[in-house]
Specification:
- By secondary structure, the chain is of the alpha/beta class.
- The protein has ten helices and 16 strands.
- The chain has a seven-stranded mixed beta sheet, sandwiched between helices. Strands 11-8-9-14 form a four-stranded mixed beta sheet, with helices on one face.
- Bound molecules: 5-S-methyl-1-O-phosphono-5-thio-D-ribulose (MRU).
């Protein structure tokens, strides 16, 4: 199993996801500012994993800061480190009622560990509930990384794939590389290969021709925030994928724990989309890819309208989309 973030022998450690797939580097996160930096730079990423990181970030802040107002401010900074994935704000919210407690730091650690354990269980149940949707011999297409690295463990979109594979089902996964930061190519393909699951990385613009050729049986993606009407924010490129799937009559599933459903957000139009640094597009490694004077636009997520979603796979079962 691959846990992106863990608490061991009194230390918070993460797998630095910026270094995968060539190096698996485990880094200790020593204070809440370092956690904020890890979140902002995507050393730790993926909606449920961001919730867990937020929880451990609050714990670290409670060890560093005595003054309650200062601690509250640090917690706000943690919640604001990335705006789209609701799990981060959702997790930090759980710590406010603990601020006045005796032995506050112990209470914060207990809560952070609970959020982690709880997410692992939720993701396991997503896998068990979703595996029946994958037929024997299926070609499944996924986007970004919604595997163990993006959660406490097991993943969301990848969990039904992992559980199908471990039950002996034959399947193959098309992995969208996921421009610009290549979470699919670097992380999803790495996770699938570690488990011996056949997979093929494609550029994002190849999915349509594969669908037209009958080479995709279903699509499963994760989610960063699901609005009350079912509109779903996920990694940029999810929306066009959903349009293609609908056109080709291919089932399009969104796998997510209930902690990713935001009932306070009425529809996709109300979800804040994170705009990231231009450099992520301007450069590939050290190499400049875009002329100096060209404009660049880098939204990290898009919205899949509920009518393009066949069903949601959650820890409580499968519910219809639009
Ligand atoms: O920018 P990232 O890498 O944090 O984006 C992650 C995604 O969009 C995932 O698909 C989503 O968080 C689901 S994770 C289980």
């Amino acid at each position: 199993m691959v846990r992106p973030i863990d608490y061991a022998e009194g230390k918070i450690v993460i797998i630095d996801q910026r270094r995968l797939p060539t190096e698996k580097v485990i880094t200790e996160i020593k204070d809440h500012r370092q956690m904020i930096d890890a979140i902002k730079t995507l050393a730790v990423r993926g909606a449920p994993a961001l919730g867990i990181a937020g929880g451990f970030g609050c714990y670290l802040a409670s060890k560093e800061i005595i003054d309650i107002e200062e601690l509250r401010k640090a917690m706000k900074d943690i919640a604001a480190a990335r705006p789209t994935a609701v799990n981060l704000a959702w997790a930090v919210e759980r710590f406010y009622p603990l601020l006045e407690k005796d032995h506050r730091t112990d209470a914060f650690l207990k809560e952070a560990l609970f959020i982690q354990r709880d997410d692992i269980k939720r993701c396991e149940n997503i896998g068990l509930n979703g595996r029946g949707l994958i037929p024997e011999g299926a070609n499944v297409l996924t986007h970004c990384n919604a595997g163990s690295l993006a959660t406490g463990d097991h993943g969301t979109a990848l969990s039904p794939i992992f559980f199908s594979h471990s039950a002996g089902k034959k399947l193959h996964v098309w992995v969208d590389e996921t421009r610009p930061l290549l979470q699919g190519a670097r992380l999803t393909s790495w996770e699938l290969s570690e488990k011996g699951i056949p997979n093929t990385v494609i550029c994002d613009n190849m999915a349509g021709s594969l669908m037209a050729a009958g080479k995709v049986d279903l699509v499963i993606i994760g989610a960063d925030r699901i609005a009350a009407n079912g509109d779903t924010a996920n990694k940029i490129g999810s929306y066009p994928l959903s349009v293609l799937a609908k056109y080709h009559h291919i089932p399009f599933y969104v796998a997510a724990p209930l902690s990713t459903f935001d009932d306070k957000c009425p529809s996709g139009a109300d979800i804040k989309i994170e705009i990231r640094r231009e450099e992520e597009i301007r450069y590939s490694g050290d190499r400049q890819m875009v002329p100096e004077n060209a404009n660049v636009y880098n939204p990290a997520f898009d919205i899949v309208p509920v009518e393009n979603i066949t069903a949601f796979i959650t820890e409580e079962g499968v519910r219809d989309g639009g």
